[in-house]
Amino acid sequence: MADSIEEKYVVFDKEKFDSWLYDVHQRGYLPAPERVDDAVVIREQDIFAGPALEMYSAAITTALRLLPQEDPTVRRLTQIRNYFRRCAERAYEKATKVPD
């Protein structure tokens, strides 16, 4: 069963995928871009998504508290933390399913 779970969703780099779609429309069939193998998918409808995304955001918050504010990564990490916090909020609103 583990294999079917791992193969349920496929993740692509958005820029490469968008470029591929454009090329397909211009030239016809092309092989799909490479999959991103180190990505996971958490669906917002999943009842565990809100807490999982909230914890990810909290982990980034912990890192931000440890970094000096002048560190160049603080701004980007803050944006990422805020993104995952918003994802968590949406997931709490949409949570209706046990993962399948």
Structure description:
- The chain is mainly α and 100 residues long.
- The chain folds into 2 domains: 1-39, no CATH class; 42-100.
- Helices cover 59% and strands 0% of the residues.
- It contains 4 helices and no strands.
- Helix 3 (49-66) runs antiparallel to helix 4 (73-94).
- The radius of gyration is 17 Å and the shape is flat.
- The relative contact order is 0.15.
Key attributes of the depicted protein:
100 residues; single chain
Helix and strand topology:
Elements: H1 2-6, H2 14-27, H3 49-66, H4 73-94
Helix pairs in contact: 3-4
Structural class: mainly alpha
In whole angstroms, the N-to-C terminal distance is 11 Å
Nearest-integer average pLDDT: 90
Biggest β-sheet: count, sense, barrel? none
Q: Uncertain regions: pLDDT < 50 for 5+ in a row?
A: none
Question: What is the helical fraction, as a range of percent?
Answer: 55-70%
Number of strands: 0
Strand content: under 5%
Number of helices: 4
Helix-strand pattern: HHHH
Gross morphology is flat
Gyration radius, rounded = 17 Å
Give the domain tally.
2
